[in-house]
Design brief:
Length: 516
Amino acid sequence: SVLIVDFGSQVTQLIARRVREAGVYSEIVPFTTAAEAFARMQPKGVILSGSPASVLDEGSPRVPPVVFESGVPVLGICYGQQVMMQQLGGQVVLGESGEFGQAFIEIQDDCVLFDGLWAPQERHQVWMSHGDKVIELAPGFRPVAVSPGSPFAVVADDARRYYATQFHPEVVHTPDGAKFLANFVRHVCGLSGEWTMAEFRAAKIADIRKQVGVGKNGGRVICGLSGGVDSAVAAVLIHEAIGEQLTCVFVDHGLMRSGEADQVVSLFRNSYNIPLVHVNAEATFLAGLAGVTDPEKKRKFIGAAFIDLFEAEAKKVGGADFLAQGTLYPDVIESVSFTGGPSVTIKSHHNVGGLPERMNMQLVEPLRELFKDEVRALGRELGLPEAFVGRHPFPGPGLAIRIPGEVTKERCDILRKADAIYLEEIRNAGLYDTIWQAFAVLLPVRSVGVMGDGRTYDNVLALRAVTSTDGMTAQAFEFPGGFLARVSTRIVNEVRGVNRVTYDYTSKPPGTIEWE
Ligand code: XMP
């Protein structure tokens, strides 16, 4: 395994992801507990992350000495390089000007990290983000690549198997970064690269059992299902770990897409035999949404009602010690701001935030390190059907935030019907998997049309489809010619209440994916 020592960089999880992609197991641990983790894991290699801190600050984080005493290979990235140099006898100074963003390094010498990748005299694109810089290498190191802002873009001490980079190989803006990291774990640490999702599953099951306890003294876990992929994968995994100690509660707000609620219920009860409490609360939600048009008020009401209903159900089943959530890594980073200061709330995302404190429960979040596509891979590994695992993301507040203006049963039904036609056409065209998310929005606008010999005055629908890798940025999807015309004709012909269809071309930013 590889131990990743986290010094607080925004992109530490990407290091773990790249190591996973190279087929090697890794764990991220905060620098504060890295010594214990090292003793427990006996890793074959250590990677030191970047950090918002400066090694020149008093009390800034350090690498536990055991790492350097043990003789295992070490790769330092950015702050990781600086802290390595400082602890091993080099010198770091405050940079006069930093390097941020795209940069080019020039390869100066051969290095095992460049195997099959880079050769001397070549220039390669990397992504830099640093203010401080190393001015004197620690004994034993030689520079193997330089950049305009840093004579030590990559440095190597082959005898001790210590390597360090000023740039960030883990981000996609360093195009060869994944292979660079794979070279470290395979060629330097000698790890074989056969670790798979099957092993992630086994490791997480062991973690869950350890956290919750099993058998007589085991804790009780309650899991709120949203109907989406993340919470379902989390629930199935946890059920595999602790069986009947888990209770799943599906608070069905009636704002799901066509047929989805039934699909979840049948998947859990019939395919997996996981006991599921299905709370059909459509009437409660619609009543609460009556007259509400402000997007944030809708979100707040839905979030609060969800929590109330969930809590009431949890009491009925006799309470629980743990709350399980399908939190993913992007949820974790989105909630932390880059500067450490408070971040602006763009939208109040719907989750069960606040519940753990209120109900005095600890969290079980087995997917915290994963990205969406990895959760899907884990879902497949757990045997969830492809049609379920590959489903587009769907927001917690459901159709309510795709109906600007007042939400009524009638408007939900119109939207569900139009949305189903749109998605059916996308599936038939073989485009479903290339699109991150596609959906219809029912606008609070009516337009005049003519159908047969009569005048119509009906609703306008907007279609949206975006490509994205993480939902944080997105671009409008370009459909092949004729596709949107076909969908538009079908919707206007088949859905009563819609007489005009438009397409939303806005990217994110400046738009968001959802309309509210
Ligand atoms: P926005 O609209 O903020 O959406 O660009 C980014 C991604 O998040 C989804 N989304 C939500 N997911 N609860 C969720 O679980 C929410 O309240 C919520 N709001 C938006 C959205 O569908 C997109 O995938």
